[in-house]
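To fix ideas, we close by showing one paired sequence and structure record:
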Amino acid sequence: MTFQEKKLEVSYTSVVILRIMLSLIFIVASANHLFNTEKAVSKIEQSNMGFIGYVLGTPETAIILSGVIMLIAGLALLTGFKTQYAAIVLMAVLIPITLTVQVGQMETMGPLFKNVALLGGLLFFSINSNLKTQKQ
């Protein structure tokens, strides 16, 4: 079985809109991490997988670090600067957040699948690195 890559044409405008809309959740979440740190720490402490939040030291450290990274990478994604790298960095932050806060929480199935959808959008931008050059 051979794998042939097929070309698919998409509207450049739709890709820009997707990139902008996807970036906004990370920018808003970064503000929450940086300005409501105690609330985010509380979520870690109450979650079934909260021990993951202690990998970098205290949960406060993890929250602040993830907030800074989401802000920088979110702004990069928003502006289209190094989009592929921004998407990869955001995936690297979103996966441990999802594992820590969402997995094992039956009452948070909606947010779990929201994060799965976000990962799909980020995967799109990490795989399609040449989207900026395809403007028509």
Notes: The CA atoms of residues 54 and 61 lie 9 Å apart.
